[in-house]
Amino acid sequence: GRPPAVPAGALHPAWGAVAEEKPLALVERALDGERAPYFTLVHRLARAPTRPGSVWLGLLKEGCDGLFRPTGVVRQAMLGMHFPRLVHVRSDWTLCNGRRRRGGWRLTTLRKRILM
């Protein structure tokens, strides 16, 4: 089919094509197993995985203004039954006032719901 319609500026050139229009949350558990799970906002990329059960992800980073913007970091994640897992979240592409900052994704899902 047709590639997803993603807003201008919402992708990083290093990523290539994305599989979905909106970002997802990658929920992971700390390696020590003692700290609470945490999440990273990601875009699922339209790349063929090199390992069965894995997906390619482009990472987003939260700015001081609360908006998530694409980084050049690409990662292949092996998904599990519990961790790591991809969670659908609600987010809106938000344009910034002024030219100094580019737009970003505003997360509208409550953070505690993502980690449930």
From TrEMBL:
Name under which the protein is recorded: Uncharacterized protein
